[in-house]
Fold these 4 entries.
Entry 1:
Amino acid sequence: MENILVIGASGQIGTDLVPALAEIYGEDHVYSCDIKKPDHMRHQMFIQLDVTHKNALFDVIRQYKITQVYHLAALLSATGEKDPLHAWDLNMRSLLNVLELGKEKLIKKIYWPSSIAVFGRDTPKRLTPQFTVMNPTTVYGISKVAGERWCAYYHENYGIDVRSLRYPGLIGYKSMPGGGTTDYAVEIYHKALETGKYECFLDKNTYLPMMYMPDAIRATIQLMEADRSKFRVKSSYNVAGISFSPEELASFIKRHIPEFTISYKPDFRQGIADTWPQSLDDSYAHEDWGWKNQYTLSTMT
């Protein structure tokens, strides 16, 4: 029987991933952990844990006989720029602690998310290839490139089954944004309902790849359940959902709330967004493990 630990479970992804895993494996076999328990966390199998403390993490793995780890804890792009050294330390040390679990044969499968933040100004903007130039401009992106290489290194040298997706911007309603450059696409829906207006921190014509959270959760679990022998990507798979601009998103909201208005006041996050792709080529994910997104901008809205 699988026993699963979701690290960073109180974040945007974990809030949706934990109940999805509990539905598959049973609530008694899915454990949540984070540095503190948030008010919205209803899952009973919660463990308070700082994943940068290696010994504490190893004790949890042994105590609860964990077989799979979903390691989601990280400081995101915008938040990370406010304290780069802390972001690097958290993002790298926590990942290496989890990879060491695999090296010590304490767990048999690891999931770790990468991001479109790995790309940079020199990367092709449209249908960004699976294998291409990666020159990230944020500490978050730098940590994700390094993380991809560490995951590939531990797989090649120690035989660890570690799997990863390069998420686009993720849009979900169950938790508020956590400090990312694509956060506007979550905030805008809340503000549309609360106040009927929104001031966007990106320019109206900034196209970025996005994904509705149910698609992201389905992609994550589908990847973890796929036959690894068919994988051609040893680091992290591109996965695409939908691409749009703030102006285009606002037009879809206005179909439901005609009086909604949007204004634009780009800040430092515009410079980050300008280095990221507008769309992704995820043909490797299609061919290797059958990935295909379900939601459009219309159905998501």
Entry 2:
Amino acid sequence: MLQNYFKIGWRNLLRSKSYSFINITGLAAGISSCLLIVLYISDELGYDRYHEKADRIHRVAVENLARTPAAAAPAMLASYPHLAEQAVRFWPLFASARP
């Protein structure tokens, strides 16, 4: 019975090649885009989750960039000692060092 279904399906694929090509290409594009979206979402949700205290880590960002003024970390520690235990500043890769 199952062999008969495969035989009929194969005959229909060979009979209408352009229609089959469009359908198979669309299915492949849909599956691959779905997989890419799932991988992207899992990567975004898993950011910094390997730390022991990941729920206590926060990132300060301005306009979707992690660039804030250099004095922001010391000012935050001085202004909000009850909220911030430590602060870290990092430079972008290949950025020139300030004098």
Entry 3:
Amino acid sequence: MKKFSIALLTLVLLAAFALPAVADTAPNEPLHPGAPGAEGRRTPIVAAIEKARPAVVSVYAQVRVETRGGSPFRNNPFHDQFFDQFFFDRWPQQSRQSVVLGSGVIIDGARGLIVTNDHVVQNAQSLIVTLSDGRELPAEVVGADPRFDLALLSVKTPKPLPDLKLGDSDDLMIGETVIAIGNPRGLSHTATTGVISATSRTINVPDSNQPLTDLIQTDAAINPGNSGGPLLNINGEIIGLNTAIMGRGGEGLGFAIPANQIRRIVTRLARGDKNSAYLDLGLELAESGRPVRGETGCLVVDVKSGGPGAAGGLKKGDLLMKLDGSPTSTIADYEMIVSSLVPGQTIEAEIRRDDRPLTLTLTPKTISETEALNLAWALYGLKVNERQGRLVLERPADRSPAQGLGLQEGDLLLAFGGQELTSRADLARAVLETRFQTTVPLAIQRGRVLHRTLISR
């Protein structure tokens, strides 16, 4: 027993003398690059994270949340909750401040430009961005495109910020190692690894009538707060922007917006040119789904006489494979490419006609308000007159979607595509912004009754 006590005392003393050496190193301090053995542990993943980490930011958006306060009689012992479901809309509204957590990545340090998700900053009253060095900077929204869940922010600093360039997402390999960095649950600069599980995924988005398409699927752990953070390849390049998870997280189902899609949309948002989203090639397309030598394209169903497509030589039945150098596997691809162009810009269209490859030159043009209203008639059978800040429907076209819904002459068109309407210009804008959707929500008033429904082509 005595020998055991001496041995135990010796161990305690040795541990006590060792404690100061351990305490000299902060628990979160990274091992110095020159420390013995460090190079042997610096894998490509470590190098990629070291390269990207300074450009990853945390985004804090302050938003006002409107909620129903509930029945004013809910504390009454005789209150029957059964009646709440009938009178819910009459309970008083309450508002409170809330903070939405998200991530972002600096893509242009000289101009202080940061890309993130639209759903992170949507309806934000103020934005704060926290940099990797701990600085907190106010941010402004340069532009956003909800259709692709992308937003561009800007911050002002006296010196350029560290940034990260967008890579190429067209050559991704299934099984390729990827890294996600972000601000999940408020834990900034959290890094997780996984592989690319699939590409060109389409998922439905809650409270949206338009799905997100052409997404990268990964099993790298993505949680609430990762939204807007980069998905990196093993070289530390941005190949995607984390945007969604399926389920409650931890299921290995995360999705990211491809880098090449981000590049096009961010270029347009940085220009501040909203009209570029309303360009026209005079084409009606359908997703063919028919592979041609391992590729898929969009089938040209119709070509408008006198439009840019007809002028460039496109014909009905052509298979559009690429536009301006990017694949057009889906109509969403086509929309994304067209929305990034500018009027008068010359682009190349790669097509297949009778299984022969051809390259044509096209020049897109801006769609006018009159053309947009004509599109509403052609697609939906909708024509309106403007009267004292209200849009009154004319008789719908025969055998049109509007007639199929039972819409009548004299109905008031209050909203289209989620946008409130007070003028023909509003309707033209709404039609252009939803022209690639197959189903669009609208609101109609007939007498004192309000109808909300969906209209499909």
Entry 4:
Amino acid sequence: MTTTERAISVAQLRDILERGEPVTVLDIRKAADRAEWAIPGSRHLDIYDALKAGATSELDSATLPQDRPIVTVCGMGQTAALATVQLRARGYDARTLTGGMSAWSLAWNTAAVPLPGSAARVLQVRRTGKGCLSYLLGAGGQAAVIDAALDPDVYVTLAHQAGWAITTVLDTHIHADHLSRSRRLAQLAGATLYLPAQERATFPFTALRDGETIVVGNARLVAWHTPGHTPEAITYVLDGRAAFTGDTLFLAGVGRPDLEAGADGGRARATALHTSLQRLLTLPPETLILPGHSSAPIAFNGEPVAATLAAVRERTSALALDRETFVETILGRIPPTPPNHARIIALNEAGELFAGDPAELEAGANRCAVA
């Protein structure tokens, strides 16, 4: 069997998981690397160093199911291929995930978002390998995409399957942890591209300001300026039923205010973030919060990453803090800086995609939330 025949692509594994077919995903990375990000439902054997050192018996004691294929995974795929060779010698139907977890960062799945009372249907499009959440919403035959983080063809295909034409593309802010595909999607679909009003982006777009409304079919999106994570950040409120909060408010955390924040280390932005969050808390408690990221791998279970504002308020203790305490608390909990964030921001401000493999630039967990 050739090396190609012992491999499986990200698209093939994604389809298997999407269909719920039996498969054992065997992650052979170091425990610290797995803690950063993993494939949902995968099994872990910490044998990376042993395989690299040439050991041939590390899998002998492992009890693995014989009745389903095994997909071995490491960071880039090379070391997992050694495990595949050993497993095949023992009679297992084993293959290696091509490109490993770096390539898996582009894997995605979807979930329908229930929104009783809204004129729109909403589909959450999730990069399970990265935690990025984007949204396709349709009403009256038209559709809008918020925070496109995948190849534009994904959104065009999903919209076509639903009987929608994409007329509107929006970003909630200038992203720091993934490349925005919004400009390219708007060009492909012939749609209007909306961004929050700011002077950072150097390409043509239609600027949105606080209180302005976008109509999609018979649904309405109202822009709320919610600065803090970035100065320009906008939350889009759909028919008074849901809020697409980007990186301002998550399900159990808030946006980090320090990236590219200047000499004060994010203090001014943290103060603005407190004001923005207090404004969001004026929405009805039953408002569904639809954030821009998940802090954990997203299972292929069709369940949206979402919660009511009331539930988010209970989970997020920082929302109950006064301004001064909030600022000190948030600045004291800043997570590590996202990998390559300066390069990603520069590309997003220019409206350009990475000339090479985007997985090289975007690999790794997102780190935009402060819990």
